[in-house]
Fold each of these.
Amino acid sequence: MVEDPPRTNAIRDGTSGSPSIEAKITDIARIGIVGLLAYWALTLIAPFAIILIWAAILAVALFPAYARLGRLLGSRRLSSFLITLTCLAVIVAPLTAIAISFAEGLQALLARLADGSLRVPVPPDYIREWPVVGERIHAAWSMASGNIEALLSKLEPSLMQAGSKVLGKVASVGAEVLSFVVSVLIAGFLFGSAKRLAEMAQRFAGRIGGQRGIGFLKLATATIRNVARGVIGVALLQAFLCGLVLSLFDVPAPGAIAFVVLVLCIIQIGPALVLLPVMIWAWATMDFGPALLLTILLIPLFVIDNVMKPILVARGLSTPTLVILLGVLGGTLSYGLIGLFLGPIVLSVVHDLLMVWARSDAAPDKIPPDPATHDTGLEPGNI
């Protein structure tokens, strides 16, 4: 006696054994519901996506400091509180001061342009000898020194278009600084869940790419810490010290100058393009003593990155300057103040991952240990 074959859970037709129309419709409905829920979830978190991403990057970059402080104090909560408070004082406060000073300086410049009190000095004759653009620059500068109103009327269409964008950015400074504060606070809460989040990230990377996926995750973690501490951190320190020194000597627009120094240091050019003219101005307008003291205080800012980067960077920074520059420009244009820091970090991570992926024989899991904690950055709780 031949028994009937066991029935399967799937509903099948009686001829080919393929799923019935009802089963196909059910599968399509399930996929549609999952897709709809995923889209709905994305629309809900989209306004906060950049803030959350920056908070996660801050948590990854600052976790070694959080872990060491927690071991020293014997309290993880106290460590998280102190790290968050330090970030608010060291990062957010100078950024706020720089942004406010930049806005005030721009407003004062526009006011002087409006009442006609702005005066431009006569250009030196050697500018004529500059190749290609020397004559044009000298002519425009001469027009500005003799009749700045005529130059402004000539450039009015371009100035109006650029001015509207600049004023829009200045008006949004407050909201961007507030977003930065929220990101720092969220990063402080992420420290407490670091172990669970690290395990989830490892499982997810392992499901996608196995051990190589975990290696890519480790490489991304190391790159985030390198760029965040060795590039962004050092640039913030240089900009903060620059603004502090310039404010002590009553240099005009210290916030605007410090902001330009911040950008130049992030893109690895250095502060010389801004600070050298400031020193020349100081020797031309100040007495000998103040000019000498200002120069002595500004000179260390030229070499501070050469001292700090070997300490803060766990491995050699391999990201090209062009990638960081594109990240700064693209991030700032797309996301404002947060994008200024987020852009170079994200592009650096993408660049390093692509370079390792292109070398099929490379092993991304062989990352040197972090000198701050002597770990490889991927143990549970260290991501």
Amino acid sequence: MTTPTASLGARTVLRTGYGALQLERLHDRPAEALALLRRAVELGVDHVDTAEFYGAGFANSVIREALRPGDDVLVVTKVGADPNPGGHPPLRLAQRPEQLRASVEDNLRSLGVDRLAVVNLRRLDTGPGLRPEGDQVVDLDDQLAVMTALRDEGKIGAIGLSSVTLDGLRRALPAGVVCVQNAYSLVSRDDEDMLRLCATEGIAWVPFFPLGGAFPGLPKATDEPAVHAVAESLGVTPAQVGLAWLLHHAPNVLLIPGTADAAHLEANVAVGGITLDAETLDTLDGIQSRSNDVPIG
């Protein structure tokens, strides 16, 4: 089994963190949202992933209220889209350099900090989801220029990338990249070459949609008979098997599963204690990988 911690830039964090997207489900129950995040800290979670467009600022407001300086939690946010309340989806692309800068300022305000430890630039070049059109098609170099300027100004501590291609990551390496967030799971392993490059470069690999199936028609790890068989043999859930496979697959993987349920949160954190032996890993590795690189919307 891999070690329970890994590096994200200058920090060493527990390999299972928390993704704040699902906090939006508790929008009308803010006390529950606060309690959930406090419970995550109690369980040892020290890496929280967020964005201003998660619940139109709600997730950031919960993080600001729930986390205390003594918790020493690394909060990672992202830019490239802004809230669009009432829209479908409830976000709008914001890829232009001036929009990236404005989004950084929005995150600084809503999180109540003077500096964002890590900011992911969400490119939307790959994976399921929206694709940029018109003036939202922006050259990566122009985006990296404003991101590095914000880092030089002290507003950003480190830069990550999201929904990026292998070529894009290679182009961005000279700017200093500490993490990559792409859609990746046991059943969708298109980015194996990028994962290996990240491991070589000391870059954290932080998969979103870590169980697949984010949109209808896309493969789900929890639909695989082999995953269910392993789960039954170990006395854990199929979702835990899918997450545990990721931790075993590469040492630079960090998980950010999201949930609005305390019991589910505890089950996610417990994944770090699940051991998959060589025979089990061979079985899971044999599951067919299917592409999830599908534009939606």
Amino acid sequence: MDPLSPPRVYEFRSRFRAPLPFVYAWCTDYSPEDPKLEEEEFTRRILEKSSRRVVYEDLSEEPTGWMWSRYVVTLRPPRRWHAEVVGSHRTWNVDYELSEKPGDTTELWFRGERRATALAGKNPPKAQLEAELREMWRRFGRALEKDYRARRKSG
């Protein structure tokens, strides 16, 4: 794999039935419990967490060996964050931006530039990976909305 080859760009939008401040706080509160939200089996280790930056690593066992990634997330409250990811199988530069929509809903815009490493071979087809990412964010959305409803009831 040519490390100088241009990255492939992936984009999608997702909506949540919750106000923007809640969505931002929920999406940027990284924790070792996050794999459960993705319904995936991997280990997340938080290395640094502050009001402006989060650094964490994910490790998963794959049929061909271990897959590792380190994420450096720059928080840009109240509606944006950026992640730079270096890993054994890919690198990413990802921008996330939230916008308020009618009816107390929030839209997430995801734009990521992804490069595969020599271990991964090549990037997956654009439509395939965007569909996988949308599904992952649908699962996040269900958990986010459930948390929002629970907090509204208790608050």
